[in-house]
Amino acid sequence: SPRGIAIAAIVNLDVNGATVGNTADTVIPAPASQTAGDGAFDLGRATAIAATADAAPVGEYLASLLRTATGLYLPVGRDGNVVLTIEPGHPEGGYDLAVAPDGIRLAANDAAGLFLGVQTLRQLLPPSSADSPASLVPPEIAATTISDHPRFAYRGAMLDVARHFFGVDEVKRYIDDIALLKLNVLHLHLTDDQGWRLEIEGWPRLTQHGGSTQVGGAGGGFYTQDDFREIVAYATSRFITIVPEIDLPGHTNAALSSYPELTCDGHAPKLYEGIEVGFSSLCIDNAHTYEFVADVLGQVAALTPGPWIHIGGDEALSTPDADYLRFIERASGIAAATGKTVIGWHEMGRSPDLPAGTVGEYWSFTTPEGDAAEVSRRFVDRGGRLILAPADVAYLDMKYDESSALGLVWAKGPTSIEDAYGWDPAEVIPGVGDAQLLGVEAPLWTETIVTMTDIESMAFPRIAAIAELAWSPRRTRDFTEFASRLAAFGAHLAALGIAFHRAPGVPWR
Ligand code: TNX
User: Which domain range does residue 46 map to?
Assistant: First the structure.
């Protein structure tokens, strides 16, 4: 088979003194099909990127990556030997990439597909960045033919900006980090007990007061609507869809503290800086509550070009059951009236009445607990699909092992890289296979996560495992082989300055 042919050393000097990149055998997530060719393409001064108008933004993006990585200023125009083509006939969401000694051809149905192909091409180059040695000599790319497409349409990461706040630049950096792995969704958990992070017109105290603190106290912060638009625009430039989450009716202490009329007794609770869950609830039979929900969800939907709006619904432990069901019915209707497809954590499946097509996000374990499987299947029964984020394998905020300084352990203890890789989305919920799945997501809750380095070291490398489960065909699954590709990927992460955890069990270089 073409796989397993020479896993090339990541930076070799060939006889001409050029740096030779990885072979296709080192790409993460593993492509659907790949064949090694003969020879190599020399990236040098004679290289030019050819792109038609619709492909030009991806051409410019590739040129800017190569400028940083190699110091080469490649022109983007009508002619060239690196040809980006948009044409019909490729598998949904996929691309074809051919690297030969006389040129590179990348083709896809749309610019999003080309962007994904560029992420593969990056990993075929020697790991490099503006200040690394690979920039001193023009690199080569070993000849290869790749035909690739994703297993799932929704390949997500989630960042909790409520427990600890992360600014626009940090979110942009995470967007670039996850784009490397062909993830195409960033779910932002914008509100929780500890903070309200998005400006809502007409409700200024949500951010002025409710956004003023975070877990542990110091800091806090929020996005103005312009900040949020900037995040959305940046994500769009990376072909990543933002899914905004406003968590309702629990996880709302910051809102209740800002507007006492949202409580049942009219008393504003204090701001909260701890990490307990399940103690707050909007007042369910209160007209203000629905004015609030309609105003917030309306503005969030208007700010977000993507098709989805997430309304939480998890861990509403202090909302009586009957109230919860009444609230979810009403709030999901308000959310659907914005024109978006509603997403909710799997508890929302308990509601007898959800808008058609509502998507459930499953966060129980790889062996479902309690009624999690049953309530999750109800989304499917009502025409929706599921996103899987099983907490024992996909939660990036779990410790790697007992010695991890950061992270929690409630989801069946620590989660190693083997754990993150060692499951299959089609085997979690009986009766839910690929056809019922929208995709997979890796949430990063931030009770213990404070800095960008914390984010990256908890996410990487486990997010690479989740990305591979979301993208690659099942037949490519093999931990030993994955670990060897991960070692090559780690060299790229190091060159890019992405802090990653050198998890044991991987032959890091
Ligand atoms: C559970 S899973 C939560 C979050 C916490 C997380 C910590 C889910 C939908 N809710 O509120 O941040 O555990 O791991």
Answer: 12-148
